[in-house]
From TrEMBL:
Protein name: CCR4-NOT transcription complex subunit 9
Keyword terms: Activator, Cytoplasm, Nucleus, Repressor, RNA-mediated gene silencing, Transcription, Transcription regulation, Translation regulation
Entry's Gene Ontology cellular component terms: CCR4-NOT complex; cytosol; nucleus; P-body
Stretches with biased composition (Polar residues): 296-307, 317-335, 354-384
Region (Disordered): 292-384
Length: 384
């Protein structure tokens, strides 16, 4: 057994036995061979939850990271014009799942950022094709970013604020599928929960207005097609924005009426945490809807929210937002995948149940979101 395999075996407590560890090492070595790479991606993706030290093993094995990046770059020509098929999506999503292991592990996360590996995924996020291969590609890519922000580390926030992740997330929040919207909004929430992230977004009126406009449109959409797992992150984003004094002043004129008039009362009936966030938001923007004891939302109260058109037009009423705060300092966290990979060939010609499970599991660790979702394959998720 090689030294790295011995390290992995020791770290995992020999739960699966040395033969399993040696098997993982065999597949890691197979990544560097183009003829065996696809099978290696599939097998390692299945084992990523059972081998806690898979990330250091991948990072410290010669040629493995280069092989994963080759898989990423090989898809670029199929993005525009859009010609990505299900088999290609399956394969690259397996590579992305291994990158998520690197993003999640404390021993590899810092080097993962220093190598600028998240930037390789931004091309996948900057697509609007709604076919399943593209949707799973976007969702799995978002899962890698979500794994980073879930750690709440300043280094991660610094990196992401220095990239274009915010506008990319905003586009997905506005026009993506519900799952993609949920993960993108979770990422935005984690950025806002960091003090530096909040200061960055509220530094200029333009940044704040862009975020507030998208959140406003999401609330209007959620009033028609209600989703608790998405709404709770939208409300948390609003509540965190209200912690900034200038953003709070702006929200007094552009807070969506649906958050005040009880539109979501039934949806939030059993979610005390989200009701508390909503009440705190309403108190902080000084609406006329008083917070009630126990986190209940007052459904009968009204507010002085502008009657102008939703979105940027309403936010535009507050265009006299005070000057930008001083420059943000450089001290600038989804969920780990937990759904087991489905058995079968790594070369399926349709989007496999395994790929769907990998993509869907990106939302599994969201705070209180989709915790009861059962993956039955593409288009067949159900509530347990």
């Amino acid at each position: 057994m090689n030294p790295m395999a011995q390290s992995v075996s020791s770290a995992s407590g020999n739960v699966s036995g040395n033969s399993d560890i040696e098997g993982v090492c065999k597949w890691v070595a197979a990544l560097t061979n183009v003829e065996t790479r696809e099978s290696a991606l599939f097998e390692l993706c299945k084992r990523r939850e059972s081998v806690p030290e898979l990330a250091p093993l991948l990072w410290n094995s010669c040629g493995c990271i280069a092989a994963l990046l080759q898989e990423i770059c090989a898809i670029y020509p199929y993005i525009n014009p859009p010609s990505l098929d299900a088999h290609q999506s399956n394969r690259v999503c397996n590579a992305l799942a291994l990158l998520q292991c690197l993003a999640s592990h404390p021993e590899t996360r810092s080097d993962f950022l220093k190598a600028n590996i998240p930037l390789y995924l931004y091309t996948f996020l900057n697509t609007n094709n709604r076919t399943r291969p593209f949707e799973y590609l976007r969702l799995t890519s978002l899962g890698v970013i979500g794994a980073l922000v879930k750690t709440d580390e300043p280094e991660v926030i610094t990196f992401l604020l220095g990239s274009e992740i915010i506008p990319l997330c905003l586009v997905i929040m506005e026009s993506g599928s519900e799952l993609s919207k949920t993960v993108a909004t979770f990422i935005m929430q984690k950025l806002l929960l960091d003090d530096v992230g909040l200061a960055y977004i509220c530094q200029t009126y333009e940044r704040f207005a862009h975020v507030a406009t998208v959140l406003d449109k999401m609330v209007i959409h959620l009033a028609r097609e209600q989703s608790l797992r998405l709404l709770k992150h939208v409300i948390r984003c609003y509540q965190r924005l209200s912690d900034d004094s200038r953003a709070r002043d702006a929200l007094r004129t552009c807070l969506p009426q649906q958050l005040v008039d009880g539109t979501f009362s039934n949806l939030l009936e059993n979610d005390m945490a989200t009701k508390r966030w909503l009440n705190q938001l309403l108190r902080q923007v000084a609406t006329r809807a008083p917070a009630l004891p126990g986190g209940n939302v007052n459904t009968a109260s009204s507010t002085n929210t502008s009657e102008a058109a939703p979105g940027s037009a309403r936010i535009g009423l507050q265009s006299t937002m005070p000057p930008a705060v001083s420059s943000v300092s450089a001290n600038e966290s989804l969920p780990a995948s937990s759904t087991a990979a489905s058995s079968g060939s790594a070369t399926n010609t349709s989007v496999s149940s395994h790929t769907y499970s990998t993509a869907l599991s990106q939302t599994a660790g969201l705070e209180g979101a989709s915790s009861n979702t059962v993956s039955n394959g593409p288009g067949n998720s159900s509530q347990a």
